[in-house]
Design goal:
Cytochrome Bc1 Complex, Chain D, domain 2; elongated; single chain
Length: 269
């Protein structure tokens, strides 16, 4: 009887034992299920993104036709009164429109900053439309404009590449024929980056072969440092350098000497 019971238990174990490939099959089924769910979710998200992008492009096209095409052409080809926008990219459109320089109020030596004419959503639609028609420089990533670069190296790069127009402290300066380099005080890091990569007005283009992304991040960090740290020497006199400082000394310094001299002479008489 004991032998029979033992044989019965062994038979039951054989009957209940899983096939060696059962675990492999379960893993494959699990992977396929997970992959299928992920693919469906990704496809759905991609479809939503594409639909949203297309909606932005359509809205931007309407805004462009109503506000920009008369100067830049319906196909971005440019006209006698406005340059082509083919290849300018999203960065250029965002810079020009979000600083109020465009639409242009009146012709002149250069477009000047003025109150913005569009909402943020409309600006996004405009630069998305132009970028979709012809690719070009895009908006900066957060890492580049975060202000976490090397401020000392950024100051050196700024003095070499930018100070001849914008002044060593970013105060701006006059150029020829009524043109000028604007002050960089208070300018957002996004606009500084966009100006470097698109070269608005009289500014040259600094692509990644001229200044790497790290170089641009360092320059932006330097300008942020200037904004956050006022002049330690007292009145900065507009940060215009020796001209304003010399004028201050000439008017107030020599003026004080002359006044004291006159007072001493009058007293002695």
């Amino acid at each position: 009887m004991a032998k029979k019971s033992s044989r019965t238990t062994t038979d039951q174990r054989k009957v209940g034992r899983r096939h060696p490939l059962a675990s492999v099959a379960l893993i494959v089924i699990g992977l396929l299920s997970t992959g299928g769910v992920y693919a469906l979710a990704t496809t759905s998200a991609t479809a939503d993104t594409s639909a949203s992008q297309q909606q932005l492009v359509e809205e931007g096209g309407k805004l462009f036709a109503a506000n920009c095409a008369s100067c830049h052409g319906l196909a971005l080809e440019g006209t006698d009164v406005g340059p082509t926008l083919i290849g300018v990219g999203e960065a250029s459109v965002h810079f020009q429109v979000s600083t109020g320089r465009m639409p242009l109020a009146a012709s002149g030596p250069q477009a000047e900053e003025k109150p913005v004419q569009f909402t943020e959503d409309q600006i996004e639609a405009l630069y998305t439309y132009v970028g979709a028609q012809s690719p070009g420089p895009g908006l900066p990533d957060e890492e580049t404009i975060a202000g976490e670069g090397d401020a000392a190296l950024g100051g050196e790069l700024f003095r070499i590449n930018c100070a001849m127009c914008h002044n060593v402290a970013g105060a701006g300066g006059a150029l020829t024929q009524g043109k000028f380099a604007p002050s960089l005080s208070g300018v957002t890091s996004t606009h500084v980056y966009e100006a470097m990569v698109t070269g608005p007005q009289n500014m040259p283009v600094f692509n990644n072969n001229n200044l790497t992304l790290e170089d641009k991040a360092d320059i932006i960090t330097y300008l942020q440092f200037l904004d956050e740290n006022p002049s330690p020497g007292g009145f900065d006199l507009g940060n215009l350098g020796p001209v304003s400082e010399g004028l201050f000394i000439w008017i107030f310094g020599l003026g004080a000497i002359v006044a004291i001299t006159v007072w001493l002479t009058a007293k002695s008489n």
